[in-house]
Design goal:
By secondary structure, this protein is α/β, with parallel strands linked by helices. It has a single domain (about 15-130), classed as Ribosomal Protein L13p, Chain: A. It is about 35% helix and about 15% strand. The protein is built from six helices and five strands. It has helices at about 25-40, 70-75, 90-95, 100-110, 115-120, 135-144, and strands at about 15-20, 55-60, 75-80, 85-90, 125. The strands form two sheets. The protein has a three-stranded parallel sheet with strand order 1-2-5, with helices on both faces.
C-alpha cells in the first residue's frame, strides 16, 4: 500500500515569530533566510501551495551590508504609469534614506509572484533600529 501524502489543514498551521538581526549581514543572505521562514520551508509540514510560514522581524536594517560595488551599481527601478514616469534610485541613496525598503524589496523578490506571495510578505516586519513593538509575541511563543 502506498502511503498518502500529508497535507496540513489551515487550522493546524501554527505561526511562530523569528527575530533576525541584520547587523553586518549581506542583504541577499538575510533576504534568503527571511524568505524561507516566510514561506514555511523551515517547517516539517511545508507545502508549496499553502501559506504555512511564520512571522519575521528584522531589526537594525540600517546596518545591512551590500557586498562588492552594489551600493553604487545597483538601482531600484519603478514606473508611475505615465509616459516619462521612470524613477531610478541608486541603492546608495535608498540605503541612506529607507533601508527597510531595500530589505523588503529583496525578500519580496524571493517570494512567489502571486496571491500567496502577497499574503506572505505581510508577515515581514522591518525596523531601522534595534527596538520593535513585537516583544509580547516573542514572550508568548517562548512559553509554549
Amino acid at each position: 500500500m502506498i502511503p498518502k501524502t500529508y497535507l496540513p489543514k489551515q487550522e493546524e498551521i501554527k505561526r511562530g515569530w523569528h527575530l533576525i538581526d541584520a547587523s553586518g549581514r549581506p542583504l541577499g543572505r538575510l533576504a534568503t533566510q527571511a524568505a524561507n521562514i516566510l514561506r514555511g520551508k523551515t517547517k516539517r509540514i511545508y507545502t508549496p501551495h499553502l501559506d504555512c510560514g511564520d512571522f519575521v522581524v528584522v531589526t537594525n536594517a540600517e546596518k545591512v551590508v551590500l557586498t562588492g560595488d552594489k551600493l553604487n551599481q545597483k538601482i531600484d527601478y519603478r514606473h508611475s504609469g505615465y509616459s516619462g514616469g521612470d524613477v531610478y534610485t541608486p541603492y546608495s541613496k535608498l540605503m541612506a534614506d529607507n533601508p527597510q525598503k531595500a530589505i523588503r524589496l529583496a525578500v519580496k523578490g524571493m517570494l512567489q509572484h502571486n496571491r500567496l506571495g502577497s499574503k506572505q510578505i505581510v508577515r515581514l516586519k522591518v525596523y531601522k533600529g534595534s527596538a520593535h513593538p513585537h516583544s509580547a509575541q516573542f514572550a508568548k511563543s517562548e512559553t509554549k
